[in-house]
């Protein structure tokens, strides 16, 4: 009897597994194109899961957006040089982790880069290079050491007036992680949260294969140069091929060196692999600023973090443990 029960149970389970399918939805969130993929038994179930992920991402955007005047982040920025602002623990912790990444990258990654957003604009509205003075003045407001945190009271204070924080280089990764965690907690067996190239995956495809990610070559966008399996992990690609400005033949990327106030040059694409998309996101931006040699050196010192760098001259470099299989 027991045996029969066992057999019918496994039969039912395998029927269920057979019925599982991959469902996808593409939509605009956080000003970017998101693609949410889940494994579910049917479309209605998949839609329910995807709706939950969307609600979670919208919630995060409301907390961290520096464009939305009603966000706690905007409240922090408005009070720069004035007073400490009490924030949700979630935002406090995100800022704390961002500062830790600043410390391990010698300030190449810095959420207080945002005061430089006032002079460098990558939305097509810029038609001349900012002046030396403007650049100097904006850089003077940057410095993660002037983001003062009070753990006990959960407050954030930007010490100098004119300072500003922004999560452009970490927010999408964070949202991808949180949406994944939520769906995992709801029992979704597998999926991918792809926030325009910042992605985190879990589980496997219904047929048992790993999720594969294709990395595109920025020099030839229609062609993937690597196809890699992703096991329970994240990969984030930062590229300058979507957002950049060109002055006197020099291409300036939307990633700015907090020390000089000038956009990073030389690298056109960085992909970072890590357990969390948040860390991968922040590190991809950091490698852009640090440059190929220092960047690779840093990545090689971090456990379970790998990266692939493409330079403007087409050179491709990888960290120690990475293997590229051409598709
Ligand atoms: P993408 O937006 O293409 O995914 P990134 O994750 O690299 O690219 O984030 C780039 C964004 O990060 C910029 O548009 C800007 O908002 C912000 N940023 C620019 N320079 C820095 C920096 N040095 N440290 C932290 N954030 C930065
Ligand atoms: Mg980034």
UniProtKB/TrEMBL annotation:
EC number(s) given by UniProt: 2.7.1.180
Cofactor note (record): Magnesium. Can also use manganese.
Signal peptide: 1-19
Catalytic activity, as annotated: L-threonyl-[protein] + FAD = FMN-L-threonyl-[protein] + AMP + H(+)
Domain of life assignment: Bacteria
SUPFAM superfamilies: ApbE-like
Matching Pfam families: ApbE (PF02424)
Cofactor list: Mg(2+); Mn(2+)
GO molecular function: metal ion binding; transferase activity
Organism: Salinimicrobium sediminis
Keyword terms of this UniProt record: FAD, Flavoprotein, Lipoprotein, Magnesium, Metal-binding, Signal, Transferase
Family the UniProt entry places it in: Belongs to the ApbE family.
InterPro entries: ApbE (IPR024932), ApbE-like_sf (IPR003374)
Binding site for Mg(2+): 169, 281, 285
Protein name according to UniProt: FAD:protein FMN transferase
């Amino acid at each position: 009897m027991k045996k029969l029960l066992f057999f019918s149970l496994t039969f039912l389970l395998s029927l269920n597994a057979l019925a599982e399918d991959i469902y996808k939805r593409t939509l605009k969130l956080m000003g970017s194109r998101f693609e949410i993929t889940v494994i579910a038994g049917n479309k209605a179930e998949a839609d329910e899961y995807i709706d939950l992920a969307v609600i979670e991402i919208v919630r995060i955007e409301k907390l961290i957006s520096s464009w939305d005047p009603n966000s706690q982040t905007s409240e922090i920025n408005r009070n720069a040089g004035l007073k400490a602002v009490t924030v949700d623990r979630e935002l406090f912790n995100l800022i704390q982790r961002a500062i830790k990444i600043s410390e391990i990258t010698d300030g190449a990654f810095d959420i207080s880069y945002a005061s430089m957003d006032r002079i460098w604009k990558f939305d097509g509205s810029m038609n001349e290079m900012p002046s030396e003075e403007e650049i100097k003045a904006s850089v003077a407001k940057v410095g993660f050491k002037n983001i003062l945190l009070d753990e006990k009271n959960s407050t954030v204070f930007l010490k100098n007036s004119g300072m500003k924080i922004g999560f452009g280089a970490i927010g999408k990764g964070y949202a991808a992680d949180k949406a994944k965690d939520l769906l995992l907690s709801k029992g979704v067996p597998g999926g991918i949260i792809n926030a325009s190239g910042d992605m985190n995956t879990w589980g496997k495809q219904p047929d048992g294969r790993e999720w594969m990610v294709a990395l595109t070559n920025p020099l030839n966008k229609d062609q993937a140069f690597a196809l890699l399996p992703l096991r329970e992990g994240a990969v984030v690609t930062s590229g300058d091929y979507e957002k950049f400005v060109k002055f006197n033949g020099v291409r300036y990327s939307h990633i700015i060196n907090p020390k000089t106030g000038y956009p990073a040059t030389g690298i056109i694409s960085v992909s970072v692999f890590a357990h969390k998309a948040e860390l991968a996101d922040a590190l991809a931006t950091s490698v852009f600023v640090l440059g190929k040699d220092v960047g690779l050196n840093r990545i090689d010192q971090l456990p379970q973090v790998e990266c692939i760098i493409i330079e403007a001259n087409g050179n491709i470099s990888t960290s120690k443990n990475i293997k590229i299989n051409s598709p």
